[in-house]
Amino acid sequence: MDLLPFSLLLVAFACLPFSDAGSIGVNYGRVADNLPSATKVVELLKSQGIDKIKIYDTDPAVLKALAGSGIKVTVAIPDAFLFAAARSQSFANVWVQRNVADYHPGTQIEAIAAGNEVFVEANSTTRYLIQAMKNLHTALVKFNLHNQVKVSSPIALSALQSSFPSSAGTFRPEFVEPVFKPMLEFLRQTGSYLMVNIYPFFAYESNADVIPLDYALFRENPGVVDSGNGLRYFSLFDAQIDAVFAAMSALKYDDVALVVTETGWPSKGDSTETGASLDNAAAYNGNLVRRVLSGGGTPLRRKADLTVYLFGLFNEDKKNGPTSERNFGLFYPNEEKVYDIPFTIEGLRGHHDTRSPTTGGGGQRTVTSPVSGGVSKSSSGNTWCVAHGDAGKERLQAALDFACGEGGADCQPIQPGDPCYDPNTLEAHASYAFNSYYQKKGRAGGSCYFGGAAYIVSEPPKYGKCEFPTGY
């Protein structure tokens, strides 16, 4: 099947009738001391045509304000309550009665999120997750709400062992048997869906030297071919979703649906937070809304229309962490838009992505080699790119996944049974992949950086009997 150029795809999307398309929701976080009342928030949502929200608790003021609004809401039972919900069916029953049944159907609660990114924290919460979900569902059955309200739990992309290329997506092995298989079976049996939080911004921020900004922002780009299945991707967002779909497929749960419960881009960040800007946030979220409401699934699941919740409704001034954490909002606390994007089909018809004049029209930034990091190509006959052993497992793994996937490095030699598989260490495999990418790019400036996880050497790397190429 021939693939249309990305520019023609955009034209095609613009002409679609938008029937049976995806849907857009918004996360309503409240880690702030300057937000409008819940009643005013509901008025704001209705004025913008936003009819789906997700909250991180079951605040009575919010649930009461939503009554009669027609806005569908996903509520959450916090991580701290999962142990009690798993241990006691009566606790789950009372929680569902007080936080769901007492408001339904006036307030259209459609899902319960059990915890949020439970696997991110190195604690014992994970072991209680599945039983808590089962008990919450049993409570919904008790109140005859199980057909209207679904139970799931949002996972972060870090729950995947591998995400690049998308076709190689797999869940972290330590969670497969105790969590993912029983969770996916529960979702299948109850007609629910997997909740996933996906942030291309963080992947771009960490690998801005190798991930094109246009690819991260849904702008026109030549696309990236998945070396595993030959599919072409025009956005990092779709590639990340398909990595999750591939992980689900590997466990034979292709029939379970997926909802993106968080995604967004910050309008402001610290000087070290590459890509955090007003223009990029407007481009990402605006183009994402168009992509979702235009309908259609991903390259791997073409018929799977997406439901996506943007993060978040407001800038939240009490959030900890870097500047970006307080600047993911679509609105300021005074209810003014941080940037102008539509949320509905009607609004999309007259909306176009604009580029910042400072990007030179291409949305790209010039990348130079790090000051330290070995000798340059011009000062030595042969140079190689190797991994920083102290870069950390997560950074090395993310960079390795990219190099072997979208980066197009030749990673066959580090597969089991091939000459460079041994030594079977992350540093050795990453070094081979980094060097392959570096050599294929003609040892160009910036091609041996990988977010600070790599550096250049002038002596041939030595990892067992593996020989590193010097050119392609």
Task: Explain how this protein is built.
- By secondary structure, this protein is an alpha/beta fold.
- Among the domains are: 16-50 and 154-359, Alpha-Beta Barrel (TIM Barrel), CATH 3.20.20; 377-457, no CATH class.
- It contains 14 helices and 15 strands.
- The strands form 4 sheets. Strands 5-4-3-2-1-13-12-9-6 form a 9-stranded parallel sheet.
- The radius of gyration is 23 Å and the shape is globular.
- Residues 1-20 and 356-380 have low confidence and may be disordered.
Count of discrete alpha- or pi-helical segments spanning 4 or more residues: 14
Terminus-to-terminus distance: 30 Å
Helix percentage range: 25-40%
Outline: globular
CATH superfamily annotation of the domain at 16-50 and 154-359:
Glycosidases
Largest sheet: 9 strands, parallel
In CATH terms, what is the architecture of the domain at 16-50 and 154-359? Alpha-Beta Barrel
How would you state the average pLDDT, rounded? 85
Sheet with most strands: strand arrangement = 5-4-3-2-1-13-12-9-6
The assigned structural class equals alpha/beta
CATH topology value of the domain at 16-50 and 154-359:
TIM Barrel
Order of helices and strands: HEHEHEHHEHEEEEHEHHEEHEHEHEHHE
GO molecular function: glucan endo-1,3-beta-D-glucosidase activity
EC number: 3.2.1.39
Membrane topology: Lipid-anchor; GPI-anchor
Keywords: Cell membrane, Disulfide bond, Glycoprotein, Glycosidase, GPI-anchor, Hydrolase, Lipoprotein, Membrane, Plant defense, Signal
